[in-house]
Amino acid sequence: MTGKVILSILLLGMVMGVALPITVPGMGEGDFLAYWSASRLLAQGENPYDPDALATLQQAVRPQRYQEQGAVLPAWNPPWLLILFLPISLLPFSIATGVWIACNGILGGMSAALAWGQVVRPFDARGFLFVLFAGLVFPSFLVTVAIGQVTVLVLIGMLSSIVLIQSRREWLAGAALLLCGIKPHLCFLFLAILGFWIIRNRRWKVAGGLAVSLLSSLILVTIFYPAWVSAYRDLLSHMPVADIDTSTLGSFMQQRFGLPYFRWAGTLLLVLLVPFTRLVFKNHWLTALNLSTLLTLPFAPYGFGADQVLLLPAMVEITGWLKLKAKQPWQTVLVLLAPILVNLGWLFWMPKNVPNHTLFWIPLAALAVYALVWRLTHR
After folding, report:
1. Judging by beta carbons within 10 Å of its beta carbon (0-12, 13-18, 19+), is residue 71 exposed, middle or buried?
2. DSSP string computed for 322-341
3. What is the mean pLDDT of residues 224-243?
4. What is the rounded CA–CA span in Å between residue 159 and residue 194?
5. How many Å apart are CA 296 and CA 134, to the nearest integer?
6. CA separation (Å) from 226 to 48, 160, 220, 222, 235?
7. Which letter does DSSP use for residue 267 in this model?
8. The pLDDT value given to residue 239
9. How many Å apart are CA 222 and CA 45, to the nearest integer?
10. What pLDDT, in 10s, does the model give residues 112-127?
């Protein structure tokens, strides 16, 4: 990755952070309001999971949005997310929103660049421009930016961890894995693969980096609010996120057929641990990451449309395969049409205000496209 590529991504993110809040009212405020307000309470030494305190703060900064949603927006994520958001929470909400939009743009662009560098070596800057543009119009990325979601942190955590492992910066790789812990249910198969690899190869520095970063974040949370454990437990017991209508197959089965235990069917994916780990032993890190993500997203206990931004590396790998291995022009045209159709399906569904569980098919469609491209380019 060249300095010009990094500079371009930084400039793009800053332009997004300045232009979008001005031109699109309410841009980036949705879920970000929950993260900002919870971190703000933590910075003040208050309970970041208290519904009443959150309601007061959210109503003060965005009364109209609070009235529209009709309920408080809690931050269900583990407390180390709030530590990451502490600096942003010190800013006024409107400014903090623009900063987070810029961060989403930068982290999304850097994720695409890291994935591209795994497929195309040496790094092809001209080809990456197409990948960057495709990433910016990726529907789930647009939703992520629009509502201020944090799944892009999980994305950059997964990709940077494998890049750092490959470059033997294992302590940093472990620290990067803490970002995956923001939404571990979306990458549990990848984490299991990595854990098996660490144990098999005795790469204890990776585990040490994760342990140090986790312990440090928990110490900081305890300093700001010592009773966070009971507060977080109360939030999860009184407002269980797993009962919400989400974009997973388990949610679909629960909403349509009354089968709540199907939400945990994803644990059966652990039978794929050994064959997927073989990909890692052969240094096919990105393929292992993508296959695990493509399978985890539809079978996760819960997940939303914006979480499907984790499909971005699979799209990048598909593009790289086509660039390097497509034998006939019609193959490239045919396969490029497939993800476009998936995206159009996403965009068709989005404005319809349909239930979240009807979006569970998107990762499965992406998996079919991924398999098709692999078949055409690896024969």
Report:
1. exposed
2. HHHH--SHHHHHHHHHHHHH
3. 85
4. 12
5. 23
6. 11, 31, 9, 4, 16
7. G
8. 67
9. 10
10. 999 999 988 788 877 7
Task: Report how far residue 124's alpha carbon sits from residue 148's, in angstroms, rounded to the nearest whole number.
Answer: 30
Could you read off the pLDDT of 56-115 as tens digits, one per residue? Answer: 898 888 877 666 666 788 888 999 999 999 999 999 999 999 999 999 999 999 999 999
pLDDT, tens digit, for every residue of 288-298? 999 999 999 98
Residue boundaries of the structural domains of the chain? 3-377
Tell me, what DSSP letter sits at residue 261?
A: G
Residue 185 DSSP label: G
Cis peptide before 122 (omega within 30 of 0): yes
Report pLDDT digits (tens) over 175-221: 999 999 999 999 999 999 999 999 989 999 999 999 999 999 999 99
* Distances, alpha carbon 85 to alpha carbons 100, 114, 209, in Å: 9, 24, 21
Note whether 112 and 145 are within 8 A (CB): no
Q: Whole-angstrom Cα distance, residue 222 to residue 238?
A: 22
Q: What is the pLDDT at residue 26? A: 83
Q: How far, in Å, CA of 94 to CA of 104, rounded?
A: 16
Residue with tokens 């609010």: 225
Cα gap 297→165, rounded to integer Å: 24
Instruction: Give the whole-angstrom CA distance, residue 239 versus residue 222.
Output: 23
